[in-house]
Each structure stands twice: as structure tokens, then as C-alpha cells.
């Protein structure tokens, strides 16, 4: 027990970094720790050359920083940012040693013996675990069909192998219920794919070239911390940073201006800005004509007009030169943009006019009333954005799009960029997450399964409610990996019911997480330094090899090992049980990058700065950006951005708001990536180990809540306890809740979050939540 305690690096050591390490004895299989110091420290002075080094990537949904692991006598001693990598890792990255050697580390398969959630398990062998899994899968398929199987994956490890292997395994079984949408960024996906033909198009390489940076519902000082230096460089060079957020967030603390806004009203602000930009003639008409669908024609039935119904790209425009309808891509034409350029009796309107019709009613006063932003601020913001070049909007999978109509929020930001031609240039664009996946072509690691049953998926926000209520089918077997369903899915009490209801829940995790507590069978998996893998993802431009630095503790195995063993039992072993290099090579195929190259270090798929949609070339079939989205129309929504008031808001649901009058928004913290690192010993040492609720002084006073007191946030879904931070850094009527606290730490703010489905992207609207807060007696 005490070997690691003697290895325990105190905070001082952590901050000091490399140097003298207190070291008594080292054993490769010691992985638990106590805070008691039993043996006197014997000091060994290690030189850099005493260590072996290995490289991996911080694989959670963050920035995939390349990390160098320092190994001494088969033990992971410390982690540093890899020299020469474009960003430096953070405290969470270097604290991963404490994840590897965590006291909650799962090191053997565990079978539940107590009640679900109680955390009572007994160790079993892999043989027994695999037998049980096989038996339960076979019984479920026999009695229930593949509709009885559910697979949940998310963002705990975003490498190119593990989640894909899991999904492929269930496909080879013949199919399963899956989650539709993502808790993260479905809304921005539903905006970007039809509009610009690409999801993930980050502009981080040219942030420093920007003159005006609008961080819109996004907090890069915390959530994109590793390259926040690019923002500061822009500022040093004279750029202004403006933050639009109901909370004075950490980015606002560094910014030139904070614009507080009522949550969920961002699209009204964007439409108001568009009205000003169009009416004051700040649009870039040439850009709109050449590179966008603004000139396409819409008929009286609200349909896009095509030359040939069988050719989806044959959009018609009105050519002002020949005064006739022609295909948009005909050479030498001058397409009409403005309505007055069309013959009065044409029966058509331009897409640009359709967009303007949505913006026109949004007078300054109306926007001010809806958003609670002063009219003069809205006017100045619109003019600044339209007349400062280059200007960038930063949304990065923003909090603003985790709202009920988040797709329109994300789309409205692209509208602003397209209208002003502020995209595809250095220092401009919409800064979103993005990475290697958008820069090169990677292949599936496993060939598609021969026969996969089409099975209705569950909208991810509804996993709790649907599973608890046997929708769409009674689930008998639930496999959860890389996902903290007990902390990250909305409406935790419903998720708990679902976990209790399903007769066989398998949770693969490396820690006894809040979710693992509710498993029937916990499978111990490796951490990033204990297996070989590949990262060619969506959060870093680099393709990175993940090297094995140390042996896994106990019986921990990579997720891909588990699927290989199971596949062998189900008769498709050879698809899954190849050496890991086989899957890495399969993924790299087509990208032009080789494993040999990666062994030398991270590889950039393209050279130079990455500028998405450079020169106005979009990734849609027409290479143009679209304003008018037929996919939205098919879902009975407006095909152009419109403002819809969030249902769970004081004005959207006055009756509910009479009981729960405060709007709750979520915030991500420096202490964790979601629930990951939530119980990391080093981080607990430097960050207060208590959740907070930020509340405005007037809201607090009404409720007799004092700064620093415990308070309970509650609504019809549940309760979340937190320490009140009484502050004017939050808008009146809004409270801000922390993301990622474990059940073992009192429970996550997801106990209260809204589990409605974001309308257009099947996403997550945790930031459209009504609550009240009470002081604790
Ligand atoms: N340290 C840390 N970094 C992370 C993560 C983490 O957990 N911890 N998670 C990573 C992941 S997966 C993601 S998706 C990104 C997310 O990155 P961000 O979007 O920056 O993260 P959030 O804190 O969810 O939201 C940002 C802000 O949105 C505000 N907000 C909420 N609702 C609204 C609204 O309706 N309108 C406006 N204008 N603002 C609103 C919140 O007050 C909050 O300050 O961060 C990534 N980086
Ligand atoms: N209340 C609230 N809820 C939210 C948000 C919020 O702001 N507030 N944000 C939302 C957003 S943006 C996101 S992206 C999601 C993130 O939600 P999740 O992706 O569920 O994130 P984590 O909580 O980090 O859970 C990841 C789990 O994977 C485990 N893990 C790590 N590596 C491996 C591995 O190699 N194999 C396996 N099998 N497991 C591994 C970790 O230990 C951890 O338990 O949360 C969403 N939910
Ligand atoms: S947590 Fe994020 S910023 Fe920190 S090291 Fe990992 S990827 Fe980098
Ligand atoms: Mo996310």
C-alpha cells in the first residue's frame, strides 16, 4: 500500500517540475496510495538520461496535447508537454500520473454484489467476465432481438481506435440501439454540415491575425486554454476581444468588453446585427454572389428553384445581364442578389431576401428587450464586426449552442461571417474545434459489417428517460465506454433509474467512476500510457502515435483487446483480433501518413497555417456556402435562421418559471474535463474541492443566500448542492453551475439539466434549464 505513498509528489514537487524526487522503493505493480507517510524518504537525484521517454496524447475531449511520459524502472514518474509541439499541456495533462496511479483505479473485472450504486463488487477473472458478457448478449439477442442491446460511447478517449472498435463490434453482432446526436456539439454540426459541408473547421492558427475577436458563448481562457496565448497575441497586436456570455467568464476577465446576454437569446442578437449590417450596406455583395447560395431563387411555395429536378445542384439564379434564369454555375453571369434586381412579376425571391425577411423585424428595441443588451451596444457590436477586418467569431462547440434551438445559434454566426465575407481568410472565420480529420482522409479501421439491422436510436439527451420507460425497446444489455452517463447525461435521476432498470450493464472504465458504481460488471481498461493507439482526431491538427510507456496495472486491458476476445467468441474474431498496428495502418491508409513517420513524432497533415474555406471554397457539393437549408425545412423548421424562444425559460414557460424562476447555465472548469480528472489528487490539492453556484446579489438576497454558504439548486428533475458565489459576474435571473462533479463528491449539476432534445441537431440543451436555489438551513 505504501510504496506509492512514498512516491507521492507533493504539490511543491509538482510545481517545481523535474528535479529531485523523493523515492523509497519502486515496484512496477504498486498502484494504490495512502496519504500516510510510513517510510522515511531516501532522496535519489535523477538525471534526464535516467528516464526512458514515451509520447502519447491527452485523449479526452480537449486539445489532444502531445505529452511526454518519463519512465524510471518501469514506473511513470512524470509527464511534461512535448518539446516543439504547438501547444503546451496544462495541469490536467501533467497530473495524468495521478490518473494512472489513482486509488480508484479499477484493476480487475468486478462483478456487482451489492445494490446498484452502492459500489460493492467482487473481483472476477477475465474468463468469467467474458463468459458473462457472451451469455447476456446471446440471451438478449435470442429473447429481445438486437433491439435489446444498447451501446453508449462518448469523449473520454477520442483516439481513432477504441470507440470505433466498439461501434463496429455491435454492428458485427447485427446491430444495436445507439445514441443519436452528441451531448457536445450536435447543434453546430446540424448547422455546419449543410451550410459549409464540413463539421469542425477551427481557425486557431490565425487567431493572432484577427483585429476583432468575438467569443460568443465560449470561454477559451479555460476551455481552449492551451492556445489561449494566440488570443493574447492578437490583443497585443491591437485586436479587441469581446465576450458575449451571461457570465463574466475567465475570457471576459482578459477581454476588452463583456456583453451579458439572456441565455438562449443569441439568435435574436445575431438577427438584429444582420439587420443593421444589411440596412447599412456593410455586406460583401461580391463574396455573397461568388461563394454563397444567397443568389439562389426561392419560389412562392418556399422551395429552392432548380433547372432540373433530378439534379440537386442545378440551382437557378436570375442573371441581370441576360435577364433570364440560368444555372448558378454558368460562367460570365451577374446573378441578382437583391430583390429589386428581379423582375417585379418573377414570382421568386432571392435567398438573400429570405434571410433579410427574418432579420428585418429585429429592430434594436426588440433585440434589446429580448436579450437585455442595451440598443447602443448592439448597434456598435454590429458595426464593429462588419467594418473591422479581419474579424473572427469564436464559438468552439459553444455553451450557446447547447440550448434548445442551438442549431440556429450556430448557423446565425455563420450567416454573419458570410454576409460580411469574414470567412476563409487569415484572422477571420468562425473558430470551431477541428483537427487532423478535416485536413486529411482517414479510413475506417474495420470494414463495414455485412448485415446491420436498422434500429431506432435514442436521442442522446433522452437516454435516461427512454431506457427507464422501455423506449424504443426494452434494453436488456447496456455497454458503456468512454462516457460518464451518471455525470454528463442530463437529468441524472432518470439516468439512475435507467441504470437500475437494465438487467446487465457493462461499464468499461479505468476508474471507479460515478457511472461504474451503477454497473453490473466493471471492466478495467488501460489509460493512455498503457497501450498503443492512434490519434487522428478533431481537436488537434496533429496525427499522433500513442505509445505504451508502462505496463497496465493488474488485469487492465485496452478496450480493443476486450472486443477482440468477444469477437472470437462470436465467430468474427479475425476482423477484430489483428495486432494494433493493423488498425493504425488501416486508419492511416489514404492520408499519406505512415506509422514509421509517427514513430518519430506528431505529424501535421498539411503544411502552413490552416485556414478553413480558404478563398471562399466551401466543402458542399457546389463549393458554395448555403443559407437556405432544405434539411431543416424537411423537419418542419424554417429553412433560414429564425429566432424561436427557448421553451424552458421564464417567457417560454411562465407556469414553470413561477416555481423555478432562475435560468441555469453550465460552465466547464479548469479542474476537469467533464468528469475526467474530477477526483485527481493533484488537482484537488490546488483547486477547491467543492462545486459552486454563481448567483447575482439581488437573487441571493431574495433567497437569504450568503456568499460562501451551501445552497441547493433544484427543479422538478432533481437537486444539486453547491457553494454560493454571490457576485455581479453573473446576470440577474441567471445562475451558473459547474460541470463534472462526481456522485462520490455530492453529485453533478446534471441532476437539474434539461433533457429536452435540441430540435434540429438532436443535441443537448443543458443551458436551457429553469431552477430555483434555496439556502441550506
Ligand atoms: N477545462 C476544460 N476545458 C474543456 C472542457 C472541460 O470540461 N474543461 N470541455 C471541452 C469540451 S468537450 C467542450 S464542448 C468545450 C466547450 O467550451 P465552452 O463552450 O467554452 O464551455 P462551456 O463552459 O460549456 O460554455 C461557455 C460559456 O457559455 C456560456 N453560456 C451558457 N449558455 C449560454 C447562452 O445561451 N448564450 C451565451 N452567449 N452564452 C452561454 C456559459 O456561461 C459559459 O461561460 O470545452 C472543451 N474544453
Ligand atoms: N451538466 C453538464 N453536462 C454536460 C456538459 C456540461 O457542460 N454540463 N457538457 C457536455 C459536453 S460538451 C460533453 S463533450 C460531454 C462529455 O461527457 P463524457 O464524454 O461522458 O465525459 P467524461 O465525464 O469525461 O467521461 C468520460 C469517461 O471515459 C472514461 N475513459 C477515459 N479513457 C477511457 C478509455 O480509454 N476507455 C474507456 N472505456 N473509458 C475511458 C473516463 O474515465 C470517464 O469516466 O458532457 C456533456 N454534458
Ligand atoms: S487537458 Fe486539455 S489542455 Fe490540458 S493537457 Fe490535456 S488536452 Fe492539453
Ligand atoms: Mo463537448
Give a verbal description of the structure.
This protein is of the alpha/beta class. It contains 27 helices and 32 strands. Strands 7-6-22-21-20-8 form a six-stranded mixed sheet, covered by helices on one side. It has a six-stranded mixed barrel with strand order 25-29-26-28-27-32. The longest helix is centred in the N-terminal third of the chain and has 19 residues, at 126-144. 56% of the residues are buried. The structure holds ligand MGD (2 copies), iron/sulfur cluster and molybdenum atom (MO).
Based on the model shown, name its key terms.
single chain; 777 residues; binds iron/sulfur cluster; globular; 17% strand; 6-stranded mixed barrel; 6-stranded mixed β-sheet; binds ligand MGD; binds molybdenum atom; alpha/beta; 27 helices; disordered N terminus
Amino acid at each position: 500500500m505504501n510504496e506509492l505513498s512514498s512516491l507521492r509528489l507533493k504539490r511543491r514537487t509538482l510545481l517545481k517540475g523535474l528535479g529531485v524526487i523523493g523515492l523509497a522503493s519502486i515496484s512496477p505493480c504498486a498502484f494504490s496510495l495512502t496519504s500516510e507517510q510510513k517510510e522515511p524518504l531516501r532522496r535519489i537525484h535523477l538525471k534526464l538520461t535516467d528516464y526512458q521517454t514515451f509520447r502519447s496524447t491527452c485523449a479526452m475531449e480537449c486539445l489532444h496535447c502531445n505529452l511526454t511520459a518519463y519512465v524510471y524502472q518501469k514506473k511513470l514518474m512524470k509527464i511534461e508537454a512535448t518539446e516543439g509541439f504547438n501547444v503546451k499541456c496544462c495541469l490536467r495533462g501533467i497530473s495524468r500520473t495521478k490518473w494512472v496511479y489513482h486509488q480508484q483505479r479499477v484493476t480487475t473485472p468486478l462483478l456487482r454484489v451489492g445494490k446498484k450504486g452502492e459500489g460493492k463488487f467482487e473481483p472476477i477473472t477475465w474468463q468469467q467476465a467474458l463468459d458473462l458478457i457472451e451469455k447476456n448478449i446471446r440471451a438478449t439477442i435470442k429473447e429481445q432481438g438486437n433491439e435489446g442491446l444498447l451501446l453508449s460511447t462518448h469523449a473520454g478517449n477520442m483516439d481513432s481506435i477504441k470507440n470505433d472498435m466498439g461501434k463496429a463490434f455491435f454492428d458485427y453482432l447485427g446491430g444495436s440501439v445507439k445514441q443519436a446526436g452528441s451531448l457536445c456539439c450536435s447543434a453546430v454540426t446540424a448547422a455546419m454540415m449543410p451550410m459549409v459541408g464540413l463539421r469542425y473547421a477551427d481557425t486557431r492558427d490565425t487567431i493572432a491575425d484577427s483585429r476583432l475577436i468575438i467569443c460568443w458563448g465560449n470561454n477559451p481562457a479555460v476551455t481552449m486554454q492551451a492556445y489561449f496565448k494566440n488570443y493574447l497575441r492578437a490583443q497585443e497586436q491591437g485586436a479587441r476581444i469581446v465576450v458575449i456570455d451571461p457570465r463574466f467568464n475567465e475570457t471576459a476577465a482578459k477581454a476588452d468588453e463583456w456583453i451579458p446576454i439572456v441565455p438562449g437569446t443569441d439568435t435574436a442578437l445575431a438577427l438584429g446585427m444582420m439587420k443593421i449590417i444589411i440596412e447599412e450596406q456593410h455586406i460583401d455583395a461580391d463574396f455573397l454572389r461568388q461563394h454563397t447560395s444567397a443568389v439562389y431563387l426561392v419560389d412562392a411555395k418556399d422551395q429552392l428553384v432548380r433547372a432540373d429536378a433530378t439534379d440537386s445542384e442545378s440551382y437557378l439564379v436570375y442573371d441581370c445581364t441576360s435577364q433570364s434564369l440560368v444555372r448558378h454555375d454558368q460562367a460570365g453571369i451577374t446573378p441578382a442578389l437583391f430583390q429589386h434586381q428581379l423582375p417585379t412579376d418573377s414570382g421568386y425571391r432571392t435567398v438573400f431576401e429570405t434571410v433579410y425577411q427574418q432579420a428585418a423585424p429585429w429592430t434594436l428595441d426588440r433585440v434589446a428587450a429580448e436579450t437585455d443588451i442595451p440598443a447602443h451596444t448592439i448597434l456598435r457590436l454590429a458595426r464593429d464586426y462588419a467594418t473591422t477586418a479581419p474579424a473572427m467569431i469564436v464559438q468552439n462547440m459553444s455553451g450557446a449552442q447547447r440550448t434548445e434551438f442551438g442549431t440556429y445559434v450556430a448557423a446565425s454566426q455563420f450567416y454573419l461571417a458570410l454576409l460580411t465575407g469574414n470567412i476563409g481568410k487569415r484572422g477571420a472565420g468562425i473558430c470551431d474545434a477541428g483537427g487532423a480529420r478535416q485536413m486529411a482522409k482517414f479510413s475506417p479501421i474495420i470494414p463495414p459489417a455485412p448485415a446491420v439491422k436498422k434500429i431506432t436510436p435514442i436521442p442522446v439527451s433522452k437516454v435516461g428517460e427512454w431506457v427507464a420507460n422501455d423506449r424504443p425497446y426494452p434494453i436488456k444489455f447496456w455497454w458503456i465506454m468512454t462516457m460518464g452517463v451518471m455525470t454528463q447525461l442530463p437529468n441524472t435521476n432518470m439516468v439512475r433509474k435507467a441504470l437500475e432498470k437494465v438487467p446487465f450493464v457493462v461499464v468499461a472504465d479505468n476508474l471507479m467512476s460515478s457511472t461504474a458504481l451503477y454497473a453490473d460488471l466493471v471492466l478495467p481498461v488501460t489509460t493512455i500510457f498503457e497501450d498503443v493507439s492512434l490519434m487522428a482526431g478533431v481537436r488537434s491538427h496533429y496525427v499522433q502515435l500513442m505509445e505504451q510507456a508502462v505496463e497496465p496495472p493488474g488485469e487492465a486491458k485496452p478496450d480493443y483487446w476486450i472486443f477482440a476476445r468477444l469477437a472470437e467468441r462470436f465467430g468474427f474474431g479475425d476482423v477484430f483480433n489483428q495486432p494494433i498496428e493493423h488498425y493504425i495502418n488501416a486508419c492511416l491508409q489514404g492520408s499519406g501518413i505512415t506509422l514509421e513517420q509517427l514513430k518519430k513524432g506528431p505529424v501535421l497533415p498539411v503544411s502552413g497555417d490552416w485556414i478553413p474555406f480558404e478563398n471562399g471554397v466551401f466543402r458542399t457539393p457546389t463549393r458554395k456556402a448555403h443559407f437556405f437549408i432544405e434539411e431543416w425545412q424537411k423537419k418542419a423548421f424554417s429553412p433560414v435562421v429564425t429566432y424561436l424562444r427557448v421553451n424552458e425559460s421564464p417567457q417560454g414557460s411562465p407556469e414553470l418559471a413561477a416555481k423555478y424562476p432562475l435560468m441555469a447555465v453550465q460552465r466547464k472548469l479548469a479542474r476537469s474535463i467533464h468528469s475526467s480528472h474530477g477526483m485527481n489528487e493533484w488537482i484537488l490539492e490546488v483547486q477547491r474541492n467543492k462545486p459552486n453556484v454563481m448567483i447575482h446579489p439581488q437573487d441571493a438576497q431574495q433567497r437569504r443566500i450568503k456568499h460562501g454558504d451551501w445552497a441547493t439548486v433544484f427543479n422538478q428533475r432533481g437537486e444539486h448542492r453547491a457553494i454560493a458565489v454571490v457576485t455581479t459576474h453573473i446576470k440577474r435571473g441567471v445562475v451558473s453551475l459547474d460541470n463534472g462533479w462526481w456522485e462520490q463528491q455530492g453529485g453533478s449539476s446534471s441532476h437539474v439539466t434539461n433533457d429536452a432534445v435540441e430540435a434540429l441537431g438532436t443535441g443537448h440543451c443543458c443551458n436551457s434549464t429553469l431552477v430555483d436555489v434555496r439556502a441550506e438551513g
